[in-house]
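Tokens in:
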């Protein structure tokens, strides 16, 4: 869906049409905030996948921009031209990281610091990229500066506490991964009454009664729509419909209650709703993709980070119904993907599913119109990466995918950047500069510079 060429429709226009007598929810006000100032930072979405990939089926062959794993993304007429693959990113430790390669990548790729030992496991060695940007980029004061969330729908203990979250405010200072989709929905889209914020139980009760957060202002919204022109109504309808559709899917998930397993959540390190049972994993992943798209599309946060599981995840992927799937995809697929054609086939099918999830997120972003005739994907930077390069713990050629235009700061998209081996610190340095933080280095490498071969409209340092 393209909105290019349509006249801009800004927050000022929205509020002018509403006048002083109509209530306009904050998420709509943010959605139509003026986007014409190129100095405004893009929105940042960081996605962390685990257990590496099948290298042969991930990277396009020479002269093409397609691969078995990324096919649905790269051949999509909307997403393919907005996708940039970064080949040659190697994990380069500064000292001797703690733990194993899962810990190196899970903690170090998005921080630039080596993982360190601590009581109960291995942890981040310093502040992570999402936290730096939330702290240093001058986002609007009305925005939530940062959300860190994920899906940990598993019924086994985490190997160590450090693998529960890659986001950190400093050395061993991890930010808890928010696992309750209902709490997140309430936090971001809220209510117009005086109820306590972030009350997931209240949210679930309301949804069971088929009540939307929009109901309290439904009459005002109907009056507002009547005052708008055709194009403006179309843009408004997209945002309203997206939120109502998301509420409907949250409501549909309630009859099963996304139940936890019979084991106590405290035993799992995931003390929250629905996250102790892998049967919920696929449903939760879809809900989170939709939540993130709505949140970024309505410009409600500056930085949103998400993890597809915990570090070194052990999903079984029963929902994919892959022929010949072993009982543990971590031990018997990822760790065994070293030339066995049957294992390669299974691992490739698993990785295709992650491509589908990322594509779903970005398709939804591309459908959100912005006030300047662009869409939310154009004005965002989506960074999709993996803690490992291969399931056998390889750390060279880490899969790194950038999507979106970062508000025009990425000058060329739709190709493979292949400028030879580059330290992983350059990825963080590049993202910092794209987000408006002038940096020469990242994490433990003070002068690494930005990624070579990527055409950007910023300069580091």
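Residues out:
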């Amino acid at each position: 869906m393209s909105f290019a060429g349509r006249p801009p429709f800004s927050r000022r226009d929205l509020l002018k049409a509403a006048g002083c007598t109509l209530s306009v929810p904050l998420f709509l006000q943010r959605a139509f905030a003026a986007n014409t100032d190129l100095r405004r930072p893009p929105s940042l979405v960081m996605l962390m996948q685990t257990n590496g990939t099948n290298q042969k089926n991930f990277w396009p062959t020479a002269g093409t921009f397609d691969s078995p794993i990324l096919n649905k993304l790269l051949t999509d007429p909307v997403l393919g031209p907005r996708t940039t693959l970064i080949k040659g990113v190697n994990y380069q430790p500064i000292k001797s990281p703690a733990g194993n390669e899962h810990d190196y990548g899970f903690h170090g790729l998005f921080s630039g610091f080596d993982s360190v030992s601590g009581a109960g496991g291995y942890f981040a060695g310093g502040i992570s990229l999402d936290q730096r940007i939330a702290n240093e980029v001058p986002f609007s004061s009305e925005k939530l500066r940062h959300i860190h969330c994920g899906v940990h729908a598993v019924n086994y203990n985490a190997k160590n506490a450090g693998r529960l979250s890659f986001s950190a405010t400093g050395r061993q200072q991890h930010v808890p991964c928010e696992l309750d989709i209902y709490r997140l929905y309430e936090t971001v889209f809220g209510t117009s009454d005086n109820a306590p914020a972030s009350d997931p139980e209240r949210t679930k009760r309301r949804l069971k009664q088929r009540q939307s957060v929009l109901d309290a202002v439904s009459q005002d919204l109907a009056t507002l729509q009547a005052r708008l022109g055709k194009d403006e109504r179309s843009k408004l309808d997209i945002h309203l419909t997206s939120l109502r559709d998301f509420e409907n899917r949250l409501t549909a998930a309630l009859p099963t209650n996304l139940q936890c397993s019979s084991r106590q959540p405290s035993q799992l390190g995931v003390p929250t709703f629905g996250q102790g049972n892998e049967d919920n994993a696929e449903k939760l992943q879809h809900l989170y993709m939709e939540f993130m798209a709505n949140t970024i599309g309505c410009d409600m946060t500056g930085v949103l980070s998400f993890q597809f599981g915990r570090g070194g995840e052990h999903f079984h992927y029963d929902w994919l119904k892959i022929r010949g799937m072993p009982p543990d995809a971590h031990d018997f697929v990822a760790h065994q993907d070293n030339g066995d054609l049957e294992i390669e086939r299974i691992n490739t099918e698993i990785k295709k599913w992650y491509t589908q999830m990322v594509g779903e997120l970005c398709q939804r972003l591309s459908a959100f119109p912005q006030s300047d005739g662009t869409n939310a994907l154009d004005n965002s930077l989506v960074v999709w990466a993996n803690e490992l390069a291969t399931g056998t713990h390889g750390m060279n050629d880490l899969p790194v995918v950038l999507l979106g235009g970062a508000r025009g700061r990425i000058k060329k998209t739709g190709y493979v950047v292949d400028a030879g081996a580059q330290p992983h610190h350059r990825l963080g340095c590049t993202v910092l500069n794209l987000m408006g933080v002038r940096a020469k280095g990242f994490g433990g490498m003070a002068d690494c510079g930005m990624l070579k071969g990527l055409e950007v409209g910023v300069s580091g340092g």
